[in-house]
Amino acid sequence: MLRLSFLALLLALAAVSCASTSQRADPSGAPGELETADQQPKTGAGSDSDGASGPQARRPLSLFHDRRIEPSRYGDGDNEISQIRPFYWKSKGPRGTRINILGPFIRYRENASYRRLDILPNIHYSARHSPADERMWWFILFPLAFLGHDDFLVLPFGGVSHGLLGLDEVMLVTPFYARTKTISHHPTDPDVFTVRHVMFPLIAWGSDGKPGGRRKFRVAPFYGKQKWRDGAESGFVMWPFYNWRKHGEARSYFVFPFYGRATTPTRRETSIMFPIYNRVEDLRTGATDTAVYPFWRRTRGSESVDIRRAWPITEYRRFGWNTEEYVAWPIWRRAYRDDGVEFAKLTWVAPFYRRVEGVDRKDGRHRKKTILWPIGRWEKARDGTREVAFPALSPFDSPELREFAEPIRPFVSLYHRKIKPNGTREASALFGLVQTRRDRVAKTKKVRILGGLLGWDRTPQGRHLRLLWALRLRLGK
Prior knowledge:
mainly beta, 42-stranded antiparallel sheet, 42 strands
């Protein structure tokens, strides 16, 4: 009951805080006059709660509610962010709408082509609504039901599905019998490969119904063989101890776990006591890659790939322009990465220290991020925004993790500050009990204490003292 009461209190405070953001100041009011929402005259559509203009100026300053405009990290426009902490987060922008409720547990995504709802761990719904000839929908109640625009599958009883597990059709009749179809849409030689299963995966047989066509037979784990129309075949005897495959000039066989060999006209791979020893040879260039897992690995003869491992002491890897090296794995790690969009340098001292420095290939803008876990995080974005947070909640950091953690951030943060390129400053301290915002564009300053129980505003129209979330006392200009 105490938990329910506390939850109800939080929701009530959030509702009151949201309601207080709709108040309007009366520039002509006399100093000392007490204002309420009913007494305040309405202002123009372009004004904020204090008479200043601009969408950012209309932002509430509240521990429980926030609404703001932020540039997309993809550089294709702005996102409108709104949230009711600690339960609800929403982003709406050029790439669609994203909603998180209770962190990652309830997620909704929508854009011009599709919508998706996930309620972890059991309920998943997705629908494609554009273009019109590709409309479809799926509903999964994992692991019991798989429903869709032309699917109905209820486990363990059975049903029919199209597209499940990459198969064009699955018909299930209890766990004992199933039939699958894979349809080839070749323009001149189409076929339908049908396989019947009894007590899956023990017994199976199937064909495409054409002489010399694709065939499959399996009595697991004793024997199985599959043959394709182009002559390729694969099979096993006493799986997984012996299996083979051939396709054209390519051959492979494996006697698990003792010895395996795979050859093609350009490549040869040998495995002994898998996965302990493995060697790959490029027959065209003579390049080799030899590994004794996990302790030693060395490549030779390749200009684009260089790997040297003496685990756990040191390791160096280079793939083209991308390099990565370890010392005393997993303690110290450094990497240089170039994905064509950004060149980045990354340094880790696990799990306490992480630093990222990146340069945009297109415009040369820099970004920096330093995490000293669990003490704090310091960051400078490409657009010049600077951010500081104490403590750092996780030694790992990504836009996705921040998205899920943002609704609870003020409640677990001793101090957080963000400074934007236009000079706007935002800060919160003591788990969100003290919040400040200074907007240099709108020429406003706001202070909130105890989630808005006490506050102070300064705008071009005057100064106000806030009391009990909804009341304001005009102090003069």
